[in-house]
Amino acid sequence: MKPNARRYESDRNEERDAERDELFVQTLNHIRHDWLNDIQVLYGYLKLKKYDKLHDYVDTIKEKMIRESAISKLGVPSLIVYLQSFRVRSRSVRLDVELEPAFQLTSLPVDAEAVSDTIIAVIETLLRHVAVPADGDVNRLRLAMSAEEDRVVIGFDYAGGYDDAGLRRDLGETMRASVAGHRIANGATYNEGGAAFYIYVPLGG
Fold first, then answer.
1. Which intervals hold domain SpoOB alpha-helical (predicted)?
2. pLDDT in tens, 27-42
3. Among the listed residues 110, 189, 191, the one whose alpha carbon sits nearest the alpha carbon of residue 152
4. Strand ordering across the sheet containing 151-159
5. pLDDT digits (tens, 9 = 90+) for 125-152
6. What percent of the chain is predicted at pLDDT more than 90?
C-alpha cells in the first residue's frame, strides 16, 4: 500500500473511531437522562402519596429493563449496539423491540452476524424513506424476533408516513445484496398507514 493510501486509510479509521465514540457518549447520556426522568416521576408520586400510580410506574420501569436486558443478550455486539443506540441515530422513528424470553441469535444454528447485518440494513433502508412526522406525532417501528421449529422469524411493522415506491425499490435492492440470501416473505403489506413484512431464516441453513 502506498504511503498516501495508508495515510488515507488511517485517517478514515480514526474518523470512524471518533464517530463510534461520540455515538457511545450520546447513548450513555440518553440512558442517564431517561433514568433521571424515571426517578423524578417516582419521587413525584411518592411525595404526592399517589401510591397506585407509583406501583404502575414501577411496573413500567421493570418492563423497560426486561426489554433492554433481552436486547443485550442477543449475542451479536454490532446488533446490540445498533438497537440500544437507535434513539440517538433516529429522531423521526421510535423503535420497539420484542423478543421471546431467552432468545439469543448466537445460540441458534444460523449465521448470526449475517442475520444482524440484514436486520440493520433493512432498518436503515426504511429510515431513508420515512416521512418526517408532524409536531406531536411519532413514527413507530416494531421489530420482533422469535425462533420456530425450523426457522427464525424476523418481523418489521412500521406505522407512519413513508415513500411507498422508494421503500419497495430499495428494500428489493437491499435484500438482493444480502450475502446470506435472505428474502422478504410473501404477504408483505404496504399501505397509507405503514408497512409490515417478515424475513424467515431457516435454522441450520
1. 25-74
2. 666 677 778 888 898 9
3. 110
4. 93-99, 139-147, 151-159, 194-202, 189-191
5. 999 999 987 776 889 999 999 999 889 9
6. 44
pLDDT at 61: 87
| E strand or H helix that includes residue 67 | helix 51-72
Number of Cβ within a 10 Å radius of residue 19: 10
| pLDDT (0 to 100) of residue 93 | 92
The owner of cell 426522568 is 37
Separation between Cα atoms, residue 171 and residue 196, nearest integer Å: 12
Sort 2 into a burial class: Cβ within 10 Å, 0-12 / 13-18 / 19+: exposed
* Residue 115 cell numbers, joined: 442475520
Domain boundaries, given as residue ranges, for the chain: 1-72, 76-205
Q: Can you tell me the distance from the alpha carbon of 62 to that of 66, in angstroms, rounded to the nearest whole number? A: 6
Per DSSP, what are the bridge partners of residue 158? 141, 195
At 141, the amino acid letter reads L
* DSSP secondary structure, 89-108, as one string: H-SSEEEEEEE-TT--GGGS
Cα 181 from Cα 68, distance rounded (Å): 29
Rounded Cα gap, residues 136 and 133, in angstroms? 8
The whole-model pTM stands at: 0.80
Closest CA to 122 of 87, 161, 95, 91: 95
Contact 163, 131 (CB under 8 A): yes
At the topology level, CATH places domain 76-205 in Heat Shock Protein 90 (3.30.565)
Residue percentage of the chain with pLDDT more than 70:
84
- The H or E element spanning position 129 is none
